[in-house]
Amino acid sequence: MAENEVKNNKNIWYIAWALILVGAVFAASQALQPKGPVFEWRVVAMDGHRMQSKPVNSDNVPEALGVFNDSAYVAPSGVAYPLDSQVAGCARILDSAQVKMAPLKVVIGHSDALLENLRDNPDLPLGNLFADALRAFGSKQFKVPMDFAITNFGGIRLPMPEGAVTLDDITSMFPFKNYVVYVRMKGSALTQLFEQLAQTKAFQATSGATVRVKAHKLESALIGGKPIDPNKVYNVTTIDFLLDGGDQINIGSLAESVKLSHVLLKDVMLDYVKGCEARGEIIHGQSDGRVIMED
């Protein structure tokens, strides 16, 4: 064996042993590293269940938030906490805010169920309820019968609570400055809008139409129970957010004309809820098959 070949073989062995040594040192160092805490992630409902707290309105603050006495804070559950505890400190902050919050905690209506904003459901009880209220309000506001109404699920930020509904609930549900508008659209443009909506995950909240979608393609659409006349001009109530690209919807580009108002979206639901309360009616939302989307 040549002398250079012997030297090369020795070098290979030296390199191999060096790599093994480095690997062993690295493995040992990792084993000696202190182990960090193991975290477990859980979803916890923010509904006051730990303290048995309840939604606050104008006349149930002690029952909802608990009370303070000379020696302790007593939670709604009956558990007493020292006045210098973190629990008592948090409760004190909430309690002190009630004076300024009182006007918003006035009960303005009652709902027979919790209505959630499950945006993937195109036939959502809350969306249907609000779209119907929007269409009725549009007819009253613009003094013409509205054939159709559409608003976006994303504009509804909180569920409608079961039981007492406060002014704060409605204000929190609709925090954005979206304004009600009146749009005149030809039937052909309305069909085009439906075809665009059919390609989305959900169909948005609508009223006045019965729509069937299959595999993200529009199969049928009726307005007022009748086939859409491509040449007829329909009266539509919507919001300014959807006129020019909001949620990728451009109703303005499809419109024959647009008439703006100074009415906020939240005022539509306030009008509806207060109207129900004045008539002694309980708020009720339901799915009714107005939009069916099949894979």
Please, could you describe this protein's structure?
With 295 residues, the chain is α+β, with helices and mostly antiparallel strands. It has two domains: 61-105, no CATH class; 109-294, 5'-Nucleotidase, C-terminal domain (5'-nucleotidase,  domain 2, Alpha-Beta Complex). The protein is 35% helix and 22% strand. The strands form four sheets. Strands 8-5-12-7-13 form a five-stranded mixed β-sheet. Strands 11-10-9-14 form a four-stranded mixed β-sheet. A hairpin with a 5-residue loop joins strand 2 (72-74) and strand 3 (80-82). Helix 4 crosses helix 7 (265-278). It starts with a helix and ends with a strand. 31% of the residues are buried.
Number of distinct beta strands: 14
What is the level 1 CATH name of the largest domain? Answer: Alpha Beta
Given helix and strand content, the structural type is alpha+beta
CATH architectural label of the largest domain: Alpha-Beta Complex
Descriptive terms for the model:
single chain, 295 residues, 5-stranded mixed β-sheet, 4-stranded mixed β-sheet, 7 helices, 14 strands, flat
Short description:
This protein is of the alpha+beta class and 295 residues long. Helix content is 35%, strand content 22%. The protein starts with a helix and ends with a strand.
Task: Produce the secondary structure layout.
Elements (H helix, E strand, L loop, with lengths): L2 H30 L28 H5 L1 E2 L3 E3 L5 E3 L3 H16 L5 E5 L13 H18 L5 E4 L11 E4 H7 L5 E8 H12 L6 E3 L1 E6 L2 E7 L2 E2 L5 E7 L17 E8 H14 L12 E4 L1
Parallel strand pairs: 5-12, 9-14
Antiparallel strand pairs: 1-2, 2-3, 4-6, 5-8, 7-12, 7-13, 9-10, 10-11
Helix pairs in contact: 4-7
